[in-house]
């Protein structure tokens, strides 16, 4: 007999009845897509990263499904901050679901402009500042420039009083884990979300002897199975280094309940599903919830706290 198992979690004062969310960028560009996710088993939804004005994004083909995941160079196509802010204001907290508003300005000024708009709005949910888009030609990922991260957070927290999360790129070196953590621990950041896609990978089709996406000569962000070990490493390393007041959303390589279990074992408070959600749609949230509950039941866990962050070393 299955004792009552809970997949509930929280970030700051925000309660999620289920720890599963979509990842920004996947099936979340329109209000229809976002409403579908809110109507599913997911604990909430995340909007496509917004820029101040609507953007068409990069030329197609700009995303390719692959046997072990995906590569994309979308180039930040979105309907603009006003479109998503309106949706967020109207849907945040409905039926106990959280709406996370993702913003990705192409400059510090654009980020400040959008965050000022959010601060002055009626939206009282979580905002996710994306510092890790790898696909705008000529723009590097802010998350790799620790001084720039410090600058944008210093400017932001002069006026932004609402809860703020940061979407960060994957880090690959202990000096980077240390460097970003030293910056983040200096600011009232509510959570960090690791990882964004592994930027500027290259997929080749040997039949046609060609790249598979058009933008940037075929270079694009990798997602799916390719990135799970890097995602788990970033969740674990930042959990070990960040002040406990900063929550962690684990993103990267999740397509099963076992993948979620591993992310939570490494310290994730919530998880986001990108590539696999893109392929499977909202039924994935029910499938993965059931798989995770079965794993927890077999292991004798009732809540996520029973095993969160308790990864063993040998
Ligand atoms: O190309 C994109 O739109 C994109 N693609 C990604 O893989 N991550 C991001 O943060 C973004 I803003």
From TrEMBL:
CDD domains linked to this entry: DHOD_1A_like
Cofactor note: Binds 1 FMN per subunit.
Localisation per UniProt entry: Cytoplasm
Cofactors, names only: FMN
Sequence positions that bind substrate: 48, 72-76, 130, 196-197
A Pfam family it matches: DHO_dh
A GO molecular function held by the record: dihydroorotate dehydrogenase (fumarate) activity
Positions contributing to FMN binding: 48-49, 130, 167, 195, 224, 252-253, 274-275
Cellular-component GO terms for this entry: cytoplasm
GO BP terms: 'de novo' pyrimidine nucleobase biosynthetic process; 'de novo' UMP biosynthetic process
Statement: the UniProt record of this protein carries the keyword Flavoprotein: yes
Pathway field: Pyrimidine metabolism; UMP biosynthesis via de novo pathway
Swiss-Prot/TrEMBL keywords: Cytoplasm, Flavoprotein, FMN, Oxidoreductase, Pyrimidine biosynthesis
Reactions catalysed: (S)-dihydroorotate + fumarate = orotate + succinate; (S)-dihydroorotate + A = orotate + AH2
Active site: 133
EC number: 1.3.-.-
Function: Catalyzes the conversion of dihydroorotate to orotate.
Protein family membership: Belongs to the dihydroorotate dehydrogenase family. Type 1 subfamily.
Assembly description: Homodimer.
PANTHER family linked: DIHYDROOROTATE DEHYDROGENASE (FUMARATE), DIHYDROOROTATE DEHYDROGENASE (QUINONE), MITOCHONDRIAL-RELATED
The name this protein goes by in its record: Dihydroorotate dehydrogenase
Source lineage: Bacteria, Bacillati, Bacillota, Bacilli, Lactobacillales
Gene: pyrD
């Amino acid at each position: 007999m299955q004792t009552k198992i809970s997949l509930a979690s929280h970030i700051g004062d925000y309660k999620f009845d289920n720890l599963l969310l979509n990842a920004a960028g996947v099936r979340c560009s329109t209000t229809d897509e976002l409403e579908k996710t809110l109507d599913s088993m997911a604990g909430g939804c995340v909007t496509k990263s917004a820029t101040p004005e609507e953007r068409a994004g990069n030329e197609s083909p700009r995303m390719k499904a692959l046997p072990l995941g995906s590569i994309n160079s979308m180039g930040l196509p979105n309907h603009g901050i006003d479109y998503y802010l309106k949706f967020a204001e109207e849907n945040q907290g409905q039926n106990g679901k959280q709406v996370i508003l993702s913003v990705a300005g192409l400059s510090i000024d654009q980020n400040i402009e959008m965050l000022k708009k959010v601060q002055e709005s009626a939206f009282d949910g979580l905002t996710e500042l994306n510092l890790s888009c790898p696909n705008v030609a000529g723009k590097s990922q802010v998350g790799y420039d620790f001084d720039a991260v410090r600058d944008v957070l210093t400017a932001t927290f002069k006026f932004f009083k609402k809860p703020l999360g940061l979407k960060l790129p994957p880090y690959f070196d202990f000096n980077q884990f240390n460097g970003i953590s030293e910056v983040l621990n200096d600011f009232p950041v509510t959570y960090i979300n690791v990882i964004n896609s592994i930027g500027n990978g290259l997929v080749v089709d040997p039949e046609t002897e060609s790249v598979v996406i058009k933008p940037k000569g075929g270079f694009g962000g990798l997602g799916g199975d390719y990135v799970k070990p890097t995602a788990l490493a970033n969740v674990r390393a930042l959990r070990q280094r960040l002040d406990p007041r900063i929550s962690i959303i684990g993103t990267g390589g999740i397509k099963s309940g076992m993948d979620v279990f591993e992310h939570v074992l490494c310290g994730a408070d919530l998880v986001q599903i990108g590539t696999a959600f893109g392929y499977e749609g909202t039924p994935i949230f029910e499938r993965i919830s059931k798989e995770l509950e079965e794993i927890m039941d077999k292991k004798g866990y009732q809540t996520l706290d029973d095993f969160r962050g308790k990864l063993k070393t040998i």
